[in-house]
Amino acid sequence: MFDLKCKRTGCEFNKNCNCTADEIEVKKDTICKTYSASKDENKRQEEKIGQPPIRKDIEVLCKAKCIFNSNYVCTANGITVQTDSSVNEPICCTFMPE
C-alpha cells in the first residue's frame, strides 16, 4: 500500500498527513494499533493539508472484518486513518464491512 494518509492529531508517525511508521496494524475494531502519542506538543494540532506520499510501499496488517482484508493483510490501494470523535481513537476510515 502506497497511499497511507493519517489525520490523527498528536501521533508521532504523522508527518504532513502521511504515516511514517515502519509497520502498521489495524485492530478488529478498526482502531489503528500503531498509533503512538507524540512527545512534541507542536504535533497536537491536526495537519489539515495532505501532502504527496513521502514513503515507500508498506504492508498494512489488518484484523477487521473488511472486504479489503485478505489473510490479515489490507489489499486496498490506500487507507486514511483519522480520529473517531465518539471514542477519541484513530480509526481506519477506509473500512468496508464484509
Provide mean pLDDT, rounded: 83
Distance between the termini: 20 Å
Q: Helicity, in percent?
A: under 10%
| Helix and strand pattern | EEEEEEEEE
Give the tally of β-strands: 9
Largest sheet: 3 strands, mixed
**Alpha-beta classification:** mainly beta
> What is the total domain count?
1
- Shape descriptor reads globular
Report Rg.
13 Å
Q: What low-confidence regions span 5 or more consecutive residues with pLDDT below 50?
A: none
Counting DSSP H or I runs of 4 or more residues, the number of helices is: 0
Strand line-up in the sheet with most strands: 1-8-9
Strand content of the residues, in percent?
25-35%
Care to describe what's here?
This protein is an all-beta fold and 98 residues long. It has one domain. The protein is built from no helices and nine strands. A hairpin with a 2-residue loop joins strand 2 and strand 3. The mean pLDDT is 83.
What are its keywords?
single chain; 98 residues; mainly beta; two-stranded antiparallel sheet; 9 strands; globular
